[in-house]
């Protein structure tokens, strides 16, 4: 018990006597100090006393689908900084392939008495995935915000980049460069953002290959598109775009002289790739801050409609796109 008091006191920046008063429900402690002690208790993984377990702390869960794509750590940085400014402590849960399932993360966050949860990609983005585990959040009336497009019937607000505008910008850019055979490297068939991108180009001429969001699977998908004769490719993420560039090079082709590639996200270091990547930028700073604003409004009791807030993307032209290669008849 003495060790626990010392650890919690150090984490909260208060005396052991203050921690003892909070845990025993005694008076003489400000609400701010009390909240700080309870948050420290949660962060350190100690159980609250029974009489305090019904109260939510100042913890907010942040669930990421992965950390390999640099766009998610970038979003996490914005969200955690914004939460800290509002007096909340983020509890990060990053999923991995074959690791802890999303359902278990939700149970863990509920056990820690979080005040709310921000999801940045998850099962909700896959139309045919299991969504029943989100019901535990609804049943608890837990404040939740979901980032990126997902299924529409969960009852939570969404913060998304406008996928239709994004793909129209990328497609229009390649067409303006003279590309007639355009390929799309998209996520799985039930991936909602990819569905939106493809739906926006209905009636236009393009080829599609589906893949998961790894660089190697993107390389295989892009190779198939190149074999089908495309000269320009639009990818559902920057990671997929880098995999597509690798595919072109393995086939002895040059980017952008032979193949133009457009990514999506404008994640960190895309100016440093070879060539620098043309991509559609997601406004991550504004999206992350908006997600926190919506969540805190819910925590503080303000009504928030379960609507989707769309943000405008921006095409960033760099060195991975160029005019379409001339046909042999035109060169001759």
TrEMBL record:
Gene3D superfamilies referenced in this protein's UniProt entry, alphabetically: 3.40.50.2300, lambda repressor-like DNA-binding domains
InterPro entries: Cro/C1-type_HTH (IPR001387), HTH_LacI (IPR000843), LacI/GalR-like_sensor (IPR046335), Lambda_DNA-bd_dom_sf (IPR010982), Peripla_BP_I (IPR028082)
Protein name (record): LacI family DNA-binding transcriptional regulator
Ranges of residues in domain HTH cro/C1-type: 5-48
Recorded GO MF terms: DNA binding
Domain of life: Bacteria
Keywords: DNA-binding, Transcription, Transcription regulation
SUPFAM superfamilies tied to this protein: lambda repressor-like DNA-binding domains, Periplasmic binding protein-like I
Organism: Paractinoplanes ovalisporus
Residue ranges of every copy of the HTH lacI-type domain listed in the record: 1-57
């Amino acid at each position: 018990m003495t060790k626990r008091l010392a650890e919690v006191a150090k984490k909260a920046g208060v005396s052991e006597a203050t921690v003892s008063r909070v845990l025993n429900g005694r008076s003489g402690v400000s609400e701010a100090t009390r909240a700080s002690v309870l948050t420290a208790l949660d962060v350190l993984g100690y159980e609250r006393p029974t009489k305090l377990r019904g109260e939510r702390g100042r913890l907010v869960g942040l669930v990421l689908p992965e950390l390999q794509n640099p766009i998610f750590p970038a979003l996490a940085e914005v969200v955690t900084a914004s939460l800290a400014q509002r007096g909340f402590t983020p509890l990060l849960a990053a999923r991995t392939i074959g690791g802890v399932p999303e359902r278990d993360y939700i149970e863990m966050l509920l056990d820690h008495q979080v005040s709310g949860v921000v999801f940045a990609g998850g099962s909700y983005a896959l139309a045919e995935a299991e969504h029943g585990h989100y019901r535990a959040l609804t049943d608890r009336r837990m404040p939740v915000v979901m980032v990126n497009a997902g299924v529409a019937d969960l009852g939570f607000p969404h913060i998304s980049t406008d996928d239709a505008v994004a793909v129209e910008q990328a497609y229009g850019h390649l067409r303006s460069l003279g590309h007639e055979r355009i390929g799309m490297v998209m996520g799985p068939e039930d991936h909602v953002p990819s569905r939106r991108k493809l739906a926006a180009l209905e009636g236009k001429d393009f080829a599609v290959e589906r893949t998961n969001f790894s660089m190697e699977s993107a390389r295989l998908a892009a190779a198939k598109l190149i074999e089908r004769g495309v000269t320009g490719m639009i990818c559902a993420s920057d990671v997929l775009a880098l995999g597509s560039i690798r595919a072109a090079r393995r086939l002895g082709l040059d980017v952008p002289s032979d193949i133009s590639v457009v990514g999506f996200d404008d994640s960190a270091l895309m100016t440093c790739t070879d060539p620098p990547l043309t991509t559609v930028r997601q406004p991550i700073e504004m999206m992350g801050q908006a997600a926190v604003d919506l969540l805190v409004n819910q925590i503080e009791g303000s009504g928030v409609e379960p609507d989707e807030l769309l943000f405008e993307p921006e095409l960033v032209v760099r060195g991975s796109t160029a005019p379409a290669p001339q046909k042999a008849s035109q060169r001759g």
